[in-house]
Amino acid sequence: MTRPTTTGKAQDLITFTRSTTGTYLGSDGLLKSAAIDEARIEYDASGNCLGLLVEEARTNLLPQSIANANWGKIGVSITENFATAPDESSTAYKISETTANSIHYAQQTNIQFTSGITYTESLIAKAGTNSVVQLLGTSGIFGSLAWANFDLSDGTIGSKGAEANAAIKPLGNGWYRCSLTMTATVNGSASAGFIILAPNKTYPRAPSYQGNSDNHIYAWGIQTEAGSFPTSYIPTSGSAVTRAADVASLAVSEFGYNQDQGTIVAQATSFYLGQNRETVISTADSSSNLGVYVGKTAGGGDIDALYAGEGGSNTYFSLGVITEDTSYKFAFAIKTDDFAGSKDGGAVVTDTSGTQRTNITDLGIGSRKNAGNRLNGHIKSIQYYPLRLSNAQLQALTI
């Protein structure tokens, strides 16, 4: 298995844990399942390596992620095990319109929602004779403006409600993952996992029209999770399932860490920028006291560097602006009274007023020791130098 790169032998000594299985897109374009404690090296639909996938824990609240007889159906018929799914199994299903003059949809029932919590629904789907699918949140929980149309022929978003944050991502072989993020306005148990057919992507919410039994799409995994962005697909088959968080770390004794000075270079991608403390790289001592940290320190688009002195005072400085789902590369030099960093070859940012911890024991990869703060993204490469490199070198290494 290809691993994110590190200097020297450290790539073979990373400790990785996850107490459940987890899915990811492999280099062959197939959706795969990683075993417990197996790292997920993910690729995009074009076969480009994205790097080590690091995610927080999430739960698929829907009891059936693949169609079965327990789904509610209005104006549609479902043919199970009809087509080849993204994991190369034969479990993809066909959703066809009936000839009824009605709304045409499938759903699951009795899902519990909490007011004020943001949820994301996602569906893996492919165009058939029909190329449009609509996702929505039930109006009694999310209001009437949480919906969006997705065009499965060209990977675009059509009409959508004002309260919806929608995205569509190619998975290869004509499959797309469509997602809809929305916030509950009341507590309650309601239907969820709506898969709604529409004649074209300009149709309104839950359209009613005369169906044609020849019209259909193909679908596979559906997921509803509490969170402001979709995470990797979590299969279910009768009850909700939780995927545990990814945890990766490396003991600094394994790669000759210099307690007095050094430079860390990394390349990463973040799914979502609205969260706090999304960590790319961190260091800590044996008591989990933070040494240095590079990641997002607050909601927004900056990637920040932080160093924590022996007395516990923290100093932050921004390395620059990042964008969701866009790769960025940074170098962070560590030395008392001589900290510096650069992102994507940009101007070097410096700070000459702080001390560093000199009893570091652990390097956190995509999280902070005993504090969580998962990256929720990919780490493509990590390099470590036991010297405070020059400002010119920091820039050159991040181009």
Question: How does this structure look, described?
Answer:
It is a single chain. It contains two helices and 32 strands. The N terminus is likely disordered. The protein has two domains: 197 residues, Jelly Rolls; 185 residues, Galactose-binding domain-like (Jelly Rolls, Sandwich), CATH 2.60.120. With 399 residues, it is mainly β. Strands 1-22-31-24-25-26-27 form a seven-stranded antiparallel sheet, with no helix packed on it. It has a seven-stranded antiparallel sheet with strand order 4-5-32-23-28-29-30, covered by helices on one side. The longest helix has 7 residues.
Write the layout of secondary structure elements.
Elements: E1 15-17, E2 22-25, E3 31-34, E4 41-43, E5 49-54, E6 58-60, E7 72-74, E8 76-83, E9 92-97, E10 101-103, E11 105-113, E12 118-127, E13 132-136, H1 139-142, E14 147-151, E15 156-160, E16 165-172, E17 175-183, E18 188-197, E19 208-210, E20 216-226, E21 241-243, E22 247-251, E23 261-270, E24 278-285, E25 290-296, E26 302-308, E27 314-321, E28 328-335, E29 339-343, E30 349-351, E31 360-365, E32 377-385, H2 391-397
